[in-house]
Amino acid sequence: MIHLVLFFFVLVIALPLNASENRDFVDISELDGSLVLDIRYATPRNFTGKVMYPVARCLLRRDAALRLIKVEQRLRAQGCRLIIFDGYRPLSVQKKFWNILPDERYVADPAKGSRHNRGAAVDVTLADLAGNPLAMPSDYDDFSEKAHRDYAGASLEAKKNCALLEAAMKAEGFDPFPTEWWHFDAPGWERYPVSDFSLEEFTVVHGEKSEQK
Ligand SMILES: [Zn+2]
User: Considering only CA atoms, which of 85, 180, 86 is closest in space to residue 133?
Assistant: First the structure.
């Protein structure tokens, strides 16, 4: 009997939590439709060689998304812009990554949860104003020392671009990750819980909310 009571208690408190889990998330393209996205995990062009996301979209916590839009504006004033590779990543996808590459220098342990799983980290690179990628020290998801921020062997141009991106991101509060030049954590990431709703599911929830207005 006590188990049954507990079961219903958990059900009652768990349902509203699940329903509100993605309330604080936004689709950044809905805030700024001009942003350039190249969501690599929605293509085979990533370290797994497989399509890991069913849709190519960048969901983020609202505060992180607003900061990233400010970075874009800052960069445009300097003659370049962002390309976004990744934002929110469901925990279930993180577990698949960890099975392929269980190395915390490159993939966060799903037992702890990635900052991407919290919707509070972004992978980005620089492009010219037309959206053409600029030179960087390595490809995205290059898990070698070439991706490290202190890698000395990069070309002068790549180093300059890397420094430009880093300065613009830091100016809006993002924290650069030492072993991946493309990865930045949003300030206050630790305040957000790890999430596991699918990138497609967000469309449905958001669509329902829109219809109610
Ligand atoms: Zn990342």
Answer: 85
Single out the catalytic residue among 30, 72, 166, 180.
Answer: 180
CA of 83 to the centre of ligand 1 (A): 13
Q: For the chain, give the percent of residues with pLDDT over 90.
A: 77
How many Cα atoms are found within 13 Å in the side-chain-facing hemisphere of 76? 12
- CB-CB contact of 31 with 61 (8 Å): no
Cα 208 to middle of ligand 1, angstroms: 30
State in Å: Cα 95 to ligand 1 middle: 15
**Residue 33 pLDDT more than 90?**
yes
pLDDT digits 0-9 by tens, 124-140? 999 999 999 999 999 99
Of 124, 107, 123, 121, the residue nearest 192 (C-alpha): 121
pLDDT in tens, 5-23: 555 544 444 444 444 456 6
> Which residue do the tokens 């290059």 mark?
142
Reading phi first (left if > 0) and then psi (alpha if -120 to 50, else beta), residue 91 is in alpha
| Distance in Å, CA 140 to ligand 1 centroid | 10
Please give the model's pTM, rounded to 2 decimal places: 0.85
Catalytic, 180? Answer yes
Q: For ligand 1, a single-atom ion, which residues have Cβ within 5 Å?
A: 123, 183
Which domains, from first to last, does the chain contain?
Answer: 2-212 (3.30.1380.10)
